[in-house]
Amino acid sequence: MDITDRRIDAGKAFDWGKTSADYARYRDIYPPVFYEKIAARGLCTAGQRILDLGTGTGVLPRNMYRFGADWTGVDIARPQIDQARRLAEELGQKIQYIAAATEEINFPGHTFDVVTACQCFWYFDHALVMPRLARMLKEGGTLLVLYMAWLPYEDEIAGASEKLVLKYSPGWSGAGEKKHPISVPDCVYDPFKPVYHEEYEVSVPFTRETWNGRMKACRGVGASLSPGEIAAWEREHRLMLEAVAPEEFLIKHYAAMLELRLK
Fold it and tell me: What is the structure's pLDDT at 2?
C-alpha cells in the first residue's frame, strides 16, 4: 500500500510492504539496553496490556515478550504483519497482530496500560489519533515514543551509506540525524503530559552484509525505489562497503525515548 505524505520525503510515495522480507531479516537491530531501559521504567512488563502502533515486523513486541506483558501490534502494511506473525510463531510467542492503519483502530475504552510507537510516531494523523489513544488507555496510562538512528556526521560508514541513499532519493527526509530529544506535535499534549525522556548513544554491530540489508530496508531505498533502482543502489552500496568498511564493524547510533502519561 503506497503512502504519500507531504511531510515525508517531499511527498514521494513509499510502501513498507515492498521491503518486508528485508525488514524482517535486517532491522531487528536494537541493542539489549534499548529494551532494558523500557522495562526499568516499569513499562511493558508482566500484568500490563500493550498496544504497539506501527509494529512493522513486530520487533518491539518480539524482543519485549520476555518481560511478560500481553502485546497487540498493528501496522498498515499487511506484508509487515505477515512477517510479524511468522516470526512470533517460530518463537512460540502469543502476540496478536492486526493489519490496520493506526487511524482506523478502535479498541474499547480503558483497554491498554501502555501504547508504544517505535520509529513510526511521525507518520500518524495526530489530531485524529491522540483522542482515540487517550480513550483506549486505562486511567494514568502511558504513551511511549521510541526512536533510534545512526549518526552520519559521527560515523564514516553511516555517512557514506546515507549519501548514496540521497543520490537515488534526493528528497529522502531520513538523512542528517543528530542526537536530540524526541519532539511531538502540540496536540499530543492535550491528553498527555511528559514525565520522562532520555537520549543515549549506542554502537550497533554489523557485517557488510547486514549493514547493506539494513540500509536497503530503509524508506529511501527498499520502500520507495523501483526494482531496477534498488538493484543499482545495491551494486553501488556493496562496492562502497568493500572500499571503506571492514568485514565487521560498529555503527554509531543514538536512541531516545519519550514517556507521556494520560492526564
Answer: 84
